[in-house]
What does this fold into?
Amino acid sequence: MNRITSIWQRRSHVPNYVFDTIESLPISAHPMTQFVIAIMALQTESHFAKRYAAGMNKKDYWDSTFDDAMDLIARLPRVASYIYRRKYKEGEHIQPNGLLDWAGNFAHMMGYEDESFKELMRLYMNINADQEGGNISAHATHLVGSALADPFLSFAAGMNGLAGPLHGLANQEVIKWIFEMREQLGIDLPSNEQIEAYVRKTLSEGKVVPGYGHAVLRKTDPRFSAQMEFGKKHMPDDPLVNTVWRVYEVVPPILQSLGKVKNPWPNVDAHSGALLVHYGMMEYEFYTVLFGVSRALGVLASLCWDRILGLPIERPKSVTTDLIKSWLKGKEEIWGE
Ligand SMILES: CC(C)(COP(=O)(O)OP(=O)(O)OC[C@H]1O[C@@H](n2cnc3c(N)ncnc32)[C@H](O)[C@@H]1OP(=O)(O)O)[C@@H](O)C(=O)NCCC(=O)NCCS
It folds into this structure.
């Protein structure tokens, strides 16, 4: 732990032109847009790109991929907190504290000194780092990386996917949805009946209930449970956190009754926002950036493995509309050569 902290500290310098690039964007730009553009600005530092251009044996690809991954992970908290302070705290930036660990220092640079918020960041950075390889941010990073795009380009692709509302942006959608419910009801802690009526209204408007469902999981997301445990320990009486727990009682049976939702249980995004709001982080448009900083740990480690294993370019077969039509009629074997 101390070793990785000091390695990342040594690698954490962010060149000034990256901050200049962020500054050139309108302040209204979504934090994820600013984040992705900053990652692209950092790409000029890529060891992989430089060594590839100089001519590199494919057996050595992993080495500079690892260097890029470590640099990126080390620099992302500084970039993300710069965006946060620029957009929401009148540009009053906070210098890193070399005595803190990676996640603790991230909390500090965003302006949160409460020890339990730092604890939350450690949990948050841990649970959002990875899931399986098929989710959009992991898959997009792998896919773009399979063209031997360097880790900066590949990770930026993954972050563009994370910015979609059915993926990482769901955590901002959840809190937005709860805030809207509270505003419409004019109450801080709605009853289960009031929540049920609001859920049914959401569904009747052709919208999804954010934070519920999953493409792979078929039970309550363990990352939801980990956050619930954190909430029970640190803020058991917080009305917003209690609203999340009530939503958890109400939503699964309703989704189950629709008969089409494969997983009626909450995912990781259903809980995170309420914990952040408890500490005063109200700016929910920023939440996906936190997710992105964490996600770097998982997807960049995977990219190193792609290079170590020498995985090939990913190139799904493409088919014509006529082929699909005849496949649907059962006439064509679509996957045949
Ligand atoms: C995560 C998600 C995209 C998975 O999609 P999926 O694998 O296609 O899910 P399913 O196979 O269960 O979907 C079957 C149907 O149930 C619906 N459904 C799934 N989750 C739903 C939810 N939370 N609220 C309402 N309807 C939902 C789908 O929209 C789909 O409806 P359709 O056939 O009319 O298009 C989906 O559950 C969802 O949109 N959830 C809300 C957004 C969210 O929390 N995303 C974060 C994921 S970590």
